[in-house]
C-alpha cells in the first residue's frame, strides 16, 4: 500500500484496520485508497481525530451473514451464503445494492459498503451506506430457480429492512427480475406495500423512470463534465466500454446520444471490437432479453465486429475509457496502454475497477480520472429520487427525473473540483471525491455523538 503522505497516525490506523479484518483484500484496498487522501483534512480538523471518526467509519454499524437454502428445478437442494453490511447511517437509511455473483464474500461486500458511504454522501441526498448480496450464481438458472433463491434470501433479510432502516437495490446479477421477486416476498411476509423498501422496481409498481439508465447515464454525464472543464466534449470521440450489463449498456446509450462512437463492450468470456460503433438495439436484445453473451453479438452483427478472447478490452485505442464491469479490471499495465494510445479521460462505471497502480499511472499522465464514488453515483442518486417519489406517492416523468440526475452529476463534479482545489490538488477527482464525501459524513457523525 502506498504511503499516507507521511502521516504516521493514519498509517498506524490503517495497519490496525488490516489486522482487525484479516483476509479482506478488497476491503483493505478500498480503505487504503480513502485513508491516503484524508491526512490534510485530519490536520485541519483535530476534532475528527479526537472523536475517533476514522476508527468508527471503518467499522460497520452492523454485519449480517445468513444461510440461504433453495431447491433447483431438478429437486436438488443448494445452500448459499447471504450478506448485508449496514455500514453507516449518519446521513440516512442504509442504501446500497445487492450483488449475486459466485465471487461474493464478506470482504467484497465490505469494500462495496465502505465506498457506498462516501458515494452516497457526495450525492447530497439523505442516504447512508450499505451493501449486500450472495455467492449465488444466477447465470444459467431458470426464472423459477432465481425466484426461489430470491424468496429464500428475502425470508431472512426482510427483518433487517425498512424504508427508514435499510433500502437495498440491484448490482451485479441483480436487476429488475430479481428486485421483483425480492419485493414480492417482502410484501408477502410483512403484509405491507412498503414501496420505499427496495429501489430499482418496475415503473408500473413504484419504480422511478430513469433508474435503469441512471448509473450508465450518470457516468457519461460525469465524463462530459470532466471534458467540459478541459474545454472538450464527447462529440466525435472514440469510447471503449467494458462490461455489457446494466451500467455498460446505458453508458453506451448516453455516449452515443452525446455524439461519441463506442467501439467495445465485454463480458467475462471476452470482448467485442466494433469499429462502426456498437449496435445498441442488437446488444440490448441479446443481453437484456435473451440473457446471451457478447460472443453472440459479434456473430450476429457480422461485418467489422470482432470477438476477441486474448489480451483485454483496454488494448483497443480510444479517447475515453469507461470500465463498467467489476473491481480491479483495469491494471497499471492497462493504464499504461491506454495512455500510450492517447486516452484523455477515464471514468469508473464499476466500483473500484482501476487498481491503485492504474489510478497512479493515469493521474501522472494527466488523464482526467473520475473515481467510481463520484462517476457512478447517478444510480444511487436516482434510487434516492425513487424513495422520494414513493414517500410522496408520486411518479415523475422521464425528462424531469433525467434533469434531476444531470443536476446531481454536475453538482458532484463541481464538489469534487472545488474540494480538490481547497486542499491544493486541483484536477484530482480522487482527492475531491474522498474528502467531500468524508466531510459530510464526518460532520453528521460528530453532531450525533459517540454511537
Ligand atoms: P450486471 O448488469 O450484472 O453486469 C455486470 C457486467 O460485468 C457483465 O457484463 C459481466 O459479465 C461483467 N463482469 C462481472 N464480473 C466480472 C468478472 N469477474 N470479470 C469480467 N467481467 C465481469 O452488473 P451492473 O449492475 O452493470 O454492475 C457493473 C458494475 O457497476 C459493478 O462494479 C457494480 O458494483 C457497479 N455499479 C452498479 C450500479 C447499478 O446501479 N447497477 C451502480 C453503481 C455501480 P458476465 O455476464 O460474463 O459475468
UniProtKB/TrEMBL annotation:
This is Glutamate dehydrogenase. NAD(+) binds at residues 215, 246. Keywords: NAD, Nucleotide-binding, Oxidoreductase. One of its GO terms (biological process) is glutamate biosynthetic process. The record marks 171 as: Important for catalysis. One of its GO terms (cellular component) is cytosol. One of its GO terms (molecular function) is nucleotide binding. It comes from Marinactinospora thermotolerans DSM 45154. CDD domains: NAD_bind_2_Glu_DH. The keyword Metal-binding does not apply. Belongs to the Glu/Leu/Phe/Val dehydrogenases family. Substrate binds at residues 95, 116, 119, 170, 383. Homohexamer. Pfam families: ELFV_dehydrog, ELFV_dehydrog_N.
